[in-house]
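Input C-alpha cells:
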C-alpha cells in the first residue's frame, strides 16, 4: 500500500518554470551602450563615481551598519539550522545511569530467613546503559534533506549579500541627496548675496532720485524670501547628514563630522549588460531560485516518507545489585533493529505531500516573478538614466546662457540702462534653470545607483553559493 501511494505521489504535477528573457533590452536607439559588463566592476560599482568619500562611507556601512550586522546574524542562524536539520540522520542515543538504596524493615508478620531471600535490611542498586538508534537510509532521505538544507543556507547567504547590496545603494542615494541639498544651499546663499547687492543698488538709486522706493521694498521682500529659503535648506541638509550617519553606523556622531561638498560630480557610464545575466547577477533572483530548490528537496523528502524506515538499535548496559544475602553484577548488550511501515499514517502523509507540492508551485511562481521584476527594473533604470543624462546636458547649456543674460541685465540696471523688473526677471530665469540643472544632475547620479543595483551590482559574485538543481 505504501509503494502504491508513493507511485501515486510521484505523479504529482510540477509547474514548469519559465525564465525566458529577451536577447537584449528594449532601449531607445539614441541610447549608446557603455563598456561591456566585464570592463567595469559591478561588484564594487561605487568606485566608478571616482569619489573617495562615497567609497569610504559605503565601506564603513558594510562593516559597521546595524543592517549589515543584523543580516550577518541571520546568516549565522541559518547555518546553525542547516546543521541541526541533518543531525537526525546521525546515530542517536543517550547514556543513562541510575542508583537507588532501599531500607526494608518488617513491622508485622513472620520473617523468613532463607539465604539470598531476606525480606528486611538494606539493598542498593546501580545501573548504567547506553542505547543507540541509527536509521539506515536505503532510499536517499538524507540526500533530499541535505539538498533542501543546502538550498536554504544558499538563500540565507544571498539574503545577506542582497541586504549589503541594498545598504550600499541606500548610502550612495542618501549621499547624493545630501550633495544636492548642499548645492541648493550654496545657490540659496548666493541668491542672498545677489539680493543684498541689488538691494544696495536699489537703495542708492532711490537716494539719488533715479528710482522709486517701491523698487527698494520689492528687493527687500525678495531678500527676505531668499534668506528664509537658505534657512530651510540648511535644516534639510543637517537632517540628511544625520540620516547618512545612521546608515553607516555612526549615528551618534555630530553632523559636523560629515562634510558634504556642494558639487554633483559626473554621472558614470553604466556597463552594457544582457538580460540573461540577471539570472546570475541579481541576489534576489538567485535567492528565489534557491527557495525553489529547497521546496523541491522538501517535496522529495515528503514522498520518501511513504517508504519503510529501518533502524538499528544496539545497546550496552551494566547493573549491580546488593541486598542482604545477595550481590550480583550483570553486564548486557543488545543488537537489534526495527522497521516502521506507514499504514494508518498514509492519509496524513498524502496531505503533507499535497502541501509540499503546493509550496513548490508557489516557489516556482515566485522565481518567475523575481526574474520578470528584475528585467523590468533593469530596463526601466537604463532608459531613465539615459534620459536624465541627456536632460542634465541640455540644462547645463541653458544655464550658461541664462547666467550670461542675468549678468547683462544686472549691469544694465546698475548703470541705469534697464529697470528693476528686467533685472529680477533675468535673475529668476537663471535661478530656475540652475535649480533644474542641479535637480537633473542629482537625479542622474541617483538613477545611476539604481541602475547598478538593478543590474545586480554591489555584492561579490565570485563567492556566491551554487544552487543545486533538482533532476
Amino acid at each position: 500500500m505504501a509503494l502504491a501511494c508513493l507511485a501515486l505521489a510521484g505523479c504529482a504535477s510540477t509547474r514548469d518554470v519559465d525564465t525566458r528573457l529577451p536577447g537584449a533590452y528594449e532601449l531607445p536607439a539614441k541610447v549608446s551602450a557603455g563598456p561591456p559588463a566585464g570592463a567595469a566592476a559591478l561588484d564594487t560599482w561605487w568606485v566608478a563615481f571616482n569619489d573617495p568619500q562615497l567609497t569610504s562611507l559605503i565601506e564603513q556601512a558594510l562593516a559597521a551598519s546595524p543592517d549589515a550586522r543584523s543580516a550577518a546574524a541571520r546568516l549565522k542562524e541559518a547555518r546553525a539550522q542547516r546543521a541541526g536539520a541533518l543531525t537526525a540522520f546521525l546515530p542517536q542515543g543517550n547514556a543513562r545511569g541510575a542508583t537507588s538504596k532501599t531500607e526494608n524493615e518488617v513491622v508485622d508478620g513472620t520473617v523468613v530467613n532463607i539465604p539470598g531471600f531476606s525480606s528486611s535490611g538494606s539493598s542498593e542498586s546501580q545501573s548504567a546503559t547506553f542505547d543507540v538508534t541509527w536509521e539506515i537510509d536505503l532510499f536517499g532521505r538524507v540526500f533530499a534533506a541535505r539538498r533542501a538544507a543546502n538550498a536554504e543556507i544558499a538563500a540565507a547567504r544571498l539574503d545577506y549579500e542582497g541586504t549589503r547590496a541594498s545598504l550600499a545603494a541606500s548610502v550612495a542615494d542618501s549621499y547624493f541627496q545630501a550633495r544636492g541639498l548642499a548645492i541648493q544651499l550654496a545657490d540659496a546663499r548666493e541668491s542672498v548675496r545677489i539680493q543684498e547687492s541689488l538691494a544696495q543698488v536699489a537703495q542708492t538709486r532711490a537716494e539719488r532720485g533715479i528710482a522709486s522706493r517701491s523698487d527698494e521694498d520689492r528687493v527687500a521682500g525678495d531678500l527676505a524670501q531668499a534668506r528664509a529659503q537658505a534657512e530651510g535648506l540648511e535644516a534639510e541638509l543637517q537632517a540628511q547628514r544625520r540620516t547618512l550617519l545612521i546608515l553607516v553606523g555612526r549615528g551618534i556622531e555630530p553632523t559636523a563630522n560629515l562634510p558634504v561638498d556642494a558639487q554633483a560630480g559626473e554621472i558614470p557610464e553604466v556597463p552594457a549588460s544582457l538580460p540573461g545575466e540577471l539570472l546570475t547577477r541579481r541576489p534576489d533572483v538567485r535567492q528565489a531560485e534557491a527557495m525553489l530548490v529547497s521546496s523541491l528537496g522538501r517535496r522529495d523528502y515528503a514522498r520518501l516518507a511513504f517508504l519503510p524506515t529501518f533502524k538499528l538499535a544496539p545497546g550496552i548496559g551494566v547493573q549491580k545489585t546488593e541486598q542482604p544475602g545477595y550481590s550480583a553484577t550483570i553486564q548486557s548488550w543488545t543488537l537489534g533493529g526495527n522497521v516502521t511501515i506507514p499504514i494508518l499514517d498514509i492519509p496524513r502523509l498524502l496531505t503533507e505531500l499535497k502541501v509540499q507540492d503546493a509550496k513548490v508551485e508557489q516557489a516556482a511562481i515566485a522565481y518567475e516573478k523575481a526574474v520578470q521584476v528584475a528585467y523590468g527594473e533593469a530596463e526601466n533604470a537604463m532608459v531613465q538614466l539615459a534620459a536624465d543624462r541627456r536632460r542634465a546636458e541640455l540644462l547645463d547649456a541653458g544655464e550658461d546662457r541664462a547666467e550670461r543674460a542675468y549678468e547683462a541685465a544686472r549691469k544694465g540696471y546698475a548703470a541705469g540702462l534697464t529697470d528693476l523688473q528686467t533685472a529680477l526677471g533675468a535673475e529668476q530665469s537663471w535661478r530656475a534653470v540652475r535649480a533644474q540643472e542641479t535637480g537633473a544632475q542629482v537625479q542622474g547620479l541617483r538613477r545611476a545607483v539604481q541602475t547598478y543595483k538593478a543590474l545586480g551590482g554591489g555584492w561579490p559574485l565570485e563567492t556566491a553559493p551554487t544552487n543545486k538543481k533538482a533532476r
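The chain has a mean pLDDT of 83. The two ends are 26 Å apart (CA to CA).
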